[in-house]
Amino acid sequence: MNGRLAGWVHRAAEVTGLAAVVAHFHRHGHAGQSSPLGRLLYRVRHAQAYPVAVALLALISAATGLYPYGPVIIAAVVFAPERWRSSYLAACSGAALGGMACALLVETLGLGLVDGFFPEARQHEFWERSAYWIGRHGALALAVIGALPLPQMPALLVAALGDLNPLAIGAALFVGKLVKYGAYILATRVVLAALHRVGEMVDP
Fold first, then answer.
1. Global pTM?
2. First-residue to last-residue Cα distance in the chain
3. Per-residue confidence of the chain (204 residues) as pLDDT tens digits?
4. Which residues contact 90 (CB under 8 A, 6 or more apart)?
5. How many CB atoms lie within 10 A of CB 180?
């Protein structure tokens, strides 16, 4: 990354507040064993279960819609940048499994589950659009929705109620998240590289 581009990315990261977040996680995450907090964070970053935690958070997000997952995968990469590959695969796999689990439950229990746990889903403005595109293009439409910054839960519920095969739903979400989370991770790594280039952080 050349100096001018690095400077531009750094300024954008400062304006959005990402620079401070990245610097904080980098400073504490690389604190090694110099302090109790540093030792704890060092163990977390290098734990074998780190990708499992990333996948579990993706699974819960996809299955319940309780929180958006984008900030989670960004934080996971910032906190452990050298493990971005395993975090990437874990996030996509977790989202696919979470979507499949939700679809299986909806297909088994029907509208009662949807109205009970997602009472506003059928009134969501994206419900009808999802029904239209999934009705025409099936799993391909779900993959595209999963790759874009669009509400996923209405589309997932529509696909499940439309008797789309849960395996097809899982595959569609996996492909979509490869694109979406890949973009998040690429942008995060570009910002990290720019911050290093302009001297925002000092390597341990």
1. 0.80
2. 21
3. 455 555 565 566 565 565 665 555 555 555 455 556 556 666 777 788 999 999 999 999 999 999 999 989 998 998 888 899 999 999 999 999 999 999 999 999 988 888 888 888 888 888 989 999 999 999 999 999 999 988 899 999 999 998 899 999 999 999 999 999 999 999 888 887 777 666 544 444
4. 51, 52, 54, 55, 58
5. 24
